[in-house]
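Section 5.1 Outputs to date
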Amino acid sequence: MSTPPFATPSASELAAADPDWWRQAAVYQIYPRSFADSNGDGIGDLKGVTAKVPYLKELGVDAVWLSPFYPSALADGGYDVDDYRDVDPKIGTLADFDEMVAALHAAGIKVIVDIVPNHSSNRHAWFQEALAAPKGSPARERYHFRDGLGEHGELPPSDWTASFGGPRWTRVEDGQWYLNTFTPEQPDFNWDNPEVQEDFLETLRFWSDRGVDGFRVDVANLLVKDLPATLPSKAELSAMDRNSGTHPLMDRDEVHEIYAEWRKVFNEYNPPRFAVAEAWVETPERRAKYASPEGLGQAFSFDLLMADFDAEQFRTVIGDNLEQSRLSGSTSTWVFSNHDVTRHATRYGLPPLNGRAVKGGVEWVKEGGRKEALDIAGGIRRAKAATQLMLALPGSAYLYQGEELGLHEVADIPADRRQDPSFFRGAEWDGLGRDGCRVPLPWEPDGTSFGFGANGAHLPQPAWFVGYAASAQEREGSTLTFYRTALALRRRLQTGESLEWIDTGNADVLHFVRPGGWHVVANFGTAAVELPEGELLLASARIEDGKLPGEASAWLRA
């Protein structure tokens, strides 16, 4: 184990510490196993991330968020954690982690890591101890073990279905069953257990001491459960109110007592450590609780991610989320793509859903990704327009690796090469799984893995990646250049956390102004519209005769 840097910061460093750096940060999500492979084993690693720090600095992001890099059997892409205070040997060491953090910090980039508190892996030392221990033992109290139903306990304690398909309970050799919200390889922790609570506080300090600036909290709303002797049926569970804080399995009010303790740990550091909750909750009021300054501080909003490319939907989402942030004292989060959803360039190239589904693009993937059904050029055109609008909003912008290259979803992955448990377990909500947005990035237009590594990639890359490689986009007019320009301008233009809407008289056109005279115009229609007076700073499409084309955005300075 390497020694973390514990050097006392200088007075100037302390003076420069900004506790609010995250409020309007541009955060770039890295899925480590698919970002860059330094040793040619087909799996991305921490040294690969370190090697790409110059790329990240030139891109212009303020922080990176790394999806799990912990030891894992990859039953769920690394979200099945064997050891919360180590690095998977396949992707590096703690020394590699320290080197990466130092390189990112030297480039002025903060580091956010994923923390997975709802469940461990079934290979975690605690769970292995629980399997070897008898019923009712302290080891089993760290998880949710129950006797089964039926004459011999042969039936699960309830008929609940796991999120990735299959039963939510798994039987062990002595006949008891344990709760697994996602897969059998991911047993749920019992957060009523003080040992669990204390161990995670130790984990937060471990990574904070190594220089981590913040945490993304996986399924933050699921930790606390209320499991009475007689469990409700699946039908009864579905009928229960999810907005009262009393649902047996999700978004219980008691979870905020846990995060209040986490906040005490965060505040031990200067600046305080930051956290953002992944909390799929029913109402804005429930989400605001996770974003409280007394709790995690920020919570993801997925509202834009679920919206069509539509002016009215965007206006509603933006207004609602800015009001939420005002009430919580936090800032809004804006996101279009991540490791769990179809890439937004593809979603915007498909017919609008009009609220028919939570996750766009799923049906297209199920059908094998028919090229004739996808408007490839239109998808990236709309994605650039939407992204430019999003980057101008007050709050934090979360970007997903590869979107700056204009990548579409990779749909035609052979079944024998897929990795996502939602594919193998038949999760109805997830099509063929999430592998299509996790395909390793193309850095070069040639080689066995388009520059990802020296010997292929752990997920197959399509031939069309050749036109999307990062090195091939070092030119004016590329998607990569567009992102770099937008992020650099955003950093210079960003001021107060507010905006003022300006009536356009056109239902397809949104216009707002930020403090300092930063005007933002987005045309969701197909007909060109006149731009207001001002200095044109950036447009997602070519401006002709002072008109903004359809499906495009522009920034101007008054």
